[in-house]
Amino acid sequence: MPRTRPRADALAQAVVLRPQDWGPGFRAQRPAASAPGTVAVLDAQCSWQRRPLPDSVLASSSRYGELPGTGGRGTVKVTSSVTVHATVGAADEQLATTLEDALRCREQQVRTDERISQLASVASPYGQGGNTYADDSVVEIGSYLTGNSAQPYHWNVARLGSVTVAVSVMGAKGYKDDELTSFASYALSKMLSRIESGLGGKN
Question: Is there a contact between 191 and 133 (Cβ–Cβ < 8 Å)?
Answer without folding.
Answer: no
